[in-house]
From TrEMBL:
<dbReference type="InterPro" id="IPR011601">
    <property type="entry name" value="MurB_C"/>
</dbReference>
<keyword id="KW-0133">Cell shape</keyword>
<dbReference type="InterPro" id="IPR003170">
    <property type="entry name" value="MurB"/>
</dbReference>
<comment type="pathway">
    <text>Cell wall biogenesis; peptidoglycan biosynthesis.</text>
</comment>
<dbReference type="Pfam" id="PF02873">
    <property type="entry name" value="MurB_C"/>
</dbReference>
<dbReference type="InterPro" id="IPR006094">
    <property type="entry name" value="Oxid_FAD_bind_N"/>
</dbReference>
<feature type="active site" description="Proton donor">
    <location>
        <position position="227"/>
    </location>
</feature>
<feature type="active site">
    <location>
        <position position="297"/>
    </location>
</feature>
<keyword id="KW-0274">FAD</keyword>
<dbReference type="InterPro" id="IPR016166">
    <property type="entry name" value="FAD-bd_PCMH"/>
</dbReference>
<keyword id="KW-0961">Cell wall biogenesis/degradation</keyword>
<comment type="function">
    <text>Cell wall formation.</text>
</comment>
<keyword id="KW-0573">Peptidoglycan synthesis</keyword>
<feature type="active site">
    <location>
        <position position="177"/>
    </location>
</feature>
<dbReference type="GO" id="GO:0008762">
    <property type="term" value="F:UDP-N-acetylmuramate dehydrogenase activity"/>
</dbReference>
<keyword id="KW-0285">Flavoprotein</keyword>
<protein>
    <recommendedName>
        <fullName>UDP-N-acetylenolpyruvoylglucosamine reductase</fullName>
        <ecNumber>1.3.1.98</ecNumber>
    </recommendedName>
</protein>
Amino acid sequence: MNQYKDFIIMLEKILGKDNVKIDEPMKKHTSFRVGGPVDILVTPESYDQVREVVEVSKKNNVPLLILGNGSNLLVRDGGVRGIIMKLCKLDDIKVEGNKIIAQSGALLSKVSNIAAQNCLAGFEFASGIPGSVGGALTMNAGAYNGEISQVIESAYVLNNNGEFKKLTKEELELGYRMSSIIKYGYTVVEAVFNLNNGEQEKIYGRIQDLSQRRRDKQPLEYPSAGSTFKRPEGHFAAKLIEDSGLKGANVGDAEVSKKHSGFIINKGNATAKDIIKLIEMVQKTVREKYDIDLHTEVMIVGEDN
């Protein structure tokens, strides 16, 4: 950590000591509850601090990773070198007419709830997605026939020149688990959602219905990162996995969920290595049986032990 001594002092000047953590275990910050430590974890409280962290990281050649709610991330057991910037403290949500303006660290469940409180329909699909606005926009997250591209109007991002820029829906280039944010390495700080006026009772009813369907079909009682694999064109990953006889397959405490084979879960003491071995085993079996490549929806970062 000595190589970062001066860099840490700079970060503490920008963010304050409370917002800079050293050797922070990433299992505290990911929904899989696994992963080694990151050298430095920072939690900015303003857009200017986000920009300054990005600038100082570039100037000092320190690798930087942006983190939302950690619900789509698997960190290897050796941890992450460099710095992770977690945007959880940028979580303000405002309502203006039928628009919701949400900062990138705001949880989708909270946005959905505020939409319902204000009789705004269209965001119910996201009520049970355990991610943040920034992460959801980056991946064009979706569930139950809804996705972010259907409700987004614009986003405010930090580009690679250190400038804040408004991106229209078209400029976001949203596709299946894809966006211009990934393509160009932008950092989302804010999003504007355009919703429809609706009846509050119906909105809450739909949220409750989707919530019940999730409880019935998904292994929510175990740590996971949601759907482990992207949907291959013309197929469903969960069906391919189940038809390959892999439901309940395990490596250590990592298991292909018996409740929903699209989920790999942590039964308690899984390591990242266990989870990655199981992912590779599933990919190999499905490829051999169906000649179909399964690509992970989960982002895997860091180093092995």
